[in-house]
Amino acid sequence: MALEPDPPPSFPTPSAPTPSSPTPSSPTPSSPSPSSPSPSFPAPSLPDLGSLPRAEFGFPGPLRDRLVAAVLDGSKTATTGLVADYEHEGEPLPEAGRREVVVDSRELPVAVIEVTEVRVVPLAEVDLAHAVDEGEGDTSVAEWRAGHERFWHGAEMRAALGDPEFTVDDATPVVLERFRVVTVLPVTGR
Fold it and tell me: Which strands, in side-by-side order, build the sheet including 109-122?
């Protein structure tokens, strides 16, 4: 699934310091104030989530839930998209260094990832290392491809592309993306 460049404005964003809270240039108290973020929420390095493109793994539902869980536990460090999907959405292809906010099935932000590598290859050239790094338990490229073809030929993907007959073949260009988790976001609204 391609990334959406304009996330909804309902994403939580770090609040600006208030006059009573310390700023980066003022001395920091030895113990956090009640309004300070918890230690597990690194506010100073947390980007403005509303400014980041969204990483949507699959469509909302059980598949996305499994894929997001795999991102969060570190077993998913790669993903594959269709060049046709990016073109249909009018989105640029991802680039190394780009940060994205991962959303779950409820469209809530759960992590920030950073793209570390992007390759565009024909579907026939997807290698085993990439297939395994997608974290879906595939042990062969054939197994990986069968699962992806089911997804890409499914009604939701065909509807998203506006093509009820969409199919892939060996020559179909795909976007192989590798990423790393930068920040796991605090659990909110769950």
Answer: 54-55, 99-103, 109-122, 173-184, 78-82
